[in-house]
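hi! just following up on the protien thing from before. the input was this:
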Amino acid sequence: MSESSRAPSPQMIAQAFTSHGGEVSRQIGGIGGEATEKGCWTFGLPQLSQQCSERWIGSRMIWWPAGIPKHPQHAIVSSRIRRQREEETIWFGFLRCAVDRIASAKGSVILVPGTAAEKAVRQAAKHWNVATIEYSLVEADAELATAAAAARWAERISGQSHHAQAVLSPELVFAGPTLEAAQPLRDRLLFAAADQITILCSRPGGITAELKNRHLADSERQVVWILQAQQPGSMNVPESAQSGVIPWLVHTAVKDVQSRPPLQSEPIEVGRQVTEQTHRKSKAQTHDVFLRPEAWLLHWTRAIPGPWCGQTEEDWLDELVFNTAAADHSAFATLCRIVRQRTLRASNQGIRGGYRVVSWTAVPLSEFRHRRTWQRHRQRYDFELRGIGVHRSQLIRLGARPVVYGPVEQWNQLAEIDRPWFQKAGPEVRLNTRAEREWRVVGDVDLQRLSTAEICLFVENSEEKQRLQSRTDWPVVVVPPGQS
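and the predicted 3d structure came back as:
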């Protein structure tokens, strides 16, 4: 085998990188990594042996622009949580306690973009003044086939500025077989780089559970204990401790949730299920939206799994981290927000051409309950049970028009001015969009321009009606029971 085709030794790699102003601090059998003015390089994670690092992240160089951090590195790990984040109050309680522990120990917390808890951990660390160590994986999915390619990559990276404290190279395929792993690199790195691991949530059979088992089976990594957050009484402590996982019983997180003010969407006394009393009351409703349904158009509200329109992600995360009532972005909270702002904000979500519109339906409110179905491909319900109705004549005055349903060819033939009202329909479309009987208004709808008689709010049950009616002079009705 010629020298050019042979995998280069660590000395050859060191020579290649030293010529570009950095240094490879890892040699076989030793770990260095003293910072220079231009940062330093390591072959793999410096706190691990070469073999262990390769088992977890493959053969890679790491560029440390400011040198290798000296503080212990803590990883806060979690399975994915629900899209509606405010429902995860216990999880955020665990997060607060975990970051507080790290702050007390004067440790640092690892950030790997794309991992489940990263954004929330980043925001919490900022408020607890905990140092962060961010690993950049921007180019980590690529490969470097030769030592010369690795040297060119290193020269480019060391000459750039980086907000991250560590930059992983593409895998060095010339250094040995590439690593085949079932779990994403970002999650493997979070486990491998940590001097201490805290698990907030681990779903059975999920990535976190798999990596926990892999960690415990690794002879070098298993000396790093794992703290797994638990509610009191939820697991067998001795059995877990024997496996290398220390149950962390977090009383404070549960206490915080129990003392939190109710979310806007939480019922006062009973659950959200429609009671017989609600059914009886709804039958007696005599609002015009029931007497003349053809005279009204309806807009249902959805839960918002993220920041409000115009709200920064940082502000939203603060609401969640600090467990405030303002974190509630449920469908009922969305409706309360509309009442408060007296404006319906337009959206371009799901609209061909990206036009910003407010959508309405001509389907009567009496049909909402039996039409409400889960649209799996959209991950949401249609015909939600909270929203607002407006007199059709007034919406027409504001520019409302019924949607034009048809194939894509029809869209291509429409004038630009008519395209906001197009909706694809036909045999190839999974959802029967025509059944929605949709209307649209381009742009925001200013509800202050309408009289009280021209607006009607609707909610799921009488408890919500009572709570919402106390906040507005607009009439509130309950969606009637579904018709069999």
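The CA atoms of residues 393 and 479 lie 22 Å apart.
The longest strand covers residues 73-78.
cheers
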